[in-house]
Amino acid sequence: MKKLFLTIAVFSCAFFFAQKSENYIEISYNSICCGPPSSSPVMNYINSFQGKKNNIEVYRQSRLGREGEYKLFIGIDALSKSKKAKFIKGLETAINSQNKARNESSDGIVNFESQKIVKKEKLNTLNNLTIYKKENLK
Q: What is the pLDDT of residue 18?
């Protein structure tokens, strides 16, 4: 029992200190009937925005519904105020394009509220949260 508690404590501390940002934006991928939409448009945008720098952290919370719904949390503290505004505007464009191109009778929808900020403390309480590595953004 002590080993289990110690393992959980070590993992929680490692996760807590691995996070660089304090503020995250949230993107929800919801399903209608046939699974949620792909995160590729958003990931491609993030990858092109940051270039070879690895300063944007992305977390994925999976298993949120029966059809594989999930959320992405994107750390924005590493960006300057002007880059943050540019990043969010581009993200909104990518998401709006994806939602407009979907088949409304079968494809899920991507939800994004640019003003909604999730704090690090809230992220630490979420289940099924994994970090995207740079190689996953491709």
A: 47
Question: HEC states along the chain?
Answer: CHHHHHHHHHHHHHHHHHCCCCEEEEEEEECCCCCCCCCHHHHHHHHHHHCCCCCCCEEEECCCCCCCCEEEEEECCCCCHHHHHHHHHHHHHHHHHHHHCCCCCCCCEEEEEEEEEEEHHHHCCCCCEEECCHHHHC
Phi-psi region of 29 (alpha: psi -120 to 50; beta: other; left: phi over 0): beta
* Mean model confidence pLDDT for the chain: 82
Q: Is the pLDDT of residue 11 over 60?
A: no
pTM of the complete model beyond 0.85: no
Distance CA 59, CA 31 (A): 19
Rounded to 5°, the CA angle 30-31-37 comes to 75
pLDDT at 21: 81
Contact between residue 24 and residue 59 where contact means Cβ atoms under 8 Å apart: yes
What is the CA 15 to chain-centroid distance, rounded?
Answer: 16
Question: In angstroms, rounded to a whole number, what is the distance separating the alpha carbons of residues 5 and 81?
Answer: 41
